[in-house]
Amino acid sequence: MLDQIKQWDRELFIYLNSLGVEQYDRFWILVTQEEFWIPLYLFLLGLIFYNFKDAASRKYLLLGYLGSFAVTFGITRLIKFSVQRLRPNQVDSLKELIRVLQEPTYFSFVSGHTSTSMAITTYFVLLFRERFSWIYFLYLWPFLFASSRIYVGVHYPLDLLAGAILGVSIALLIYAFVKKMSPILANENL
User: Fold this and answer.
1) CA separation for the pair 1, 162 (Å, rounded)
2) Can you state the percent helix, strand and coil of the chain, rounding each to 5?
3) pLDDT at 118 over 50
4) Which of 40, 64, 144, 148 is deepest in the core (most CB within 10 A)?
5) pLDDT tens per residue across span 76-91
6) CA-CA distance, 131 to 184, in Å (whole number)?
7) 156 torsion bin: left (phi>0), alpha (psi -120 to 50), beta (else)
8) pTM of the entire structure?
9) Cis omega (within 30 of 0) on the bond before 110?
10) Taking a C-beta distance cutoff of 8 angstroms, is the pair 167, 117 a contact?
11) How far is it, in rounded angstroms, from Cα 2 to Cα 6?
């Protein structure tokens, strides 16, 4: 059964990767770079400072922001080195079938781009869902970020799905912790 799932994952990856158009390569290479998203990280930081004036609450909210990234990043690395799944761009039998625009050398499962962006996004959605109806649009970020990883040829779809599940799970745990510790959130019905 596991072999069949891996085969479907491989076939779906080949199909999705083949949809790439050279005209859009520069866009997807830009989107897949963490540095491209620095303005978004700063915007999210600003949301905390603008909406929460209490220093004690800010401390916990910032800890949640950084923690959602750091914990997810750490667990993602542990999983990568435990599973040791080669990236599609490292598999000789795929090299003639796929478009490769990047060539990272560490392992594939789970996607760190997807897990960390989903963790941060979910944390902020939980934090601000009662204040801003637009906050759900933040999910465009992990969707684009994750999609770029298939486009550039470095992740299978299951890497992304597992990364998304991991990120959301960690965000839920961190938000629950922050809500319990933060004086302002503990009194809100969030």
Assistant:
1) 18
2) 75, 0, 25
3) yes
4) 64
5) 999 999 999 999 988 8
6) 14
7) beta
8) 0.89
9) yes
10) yes
11) 6
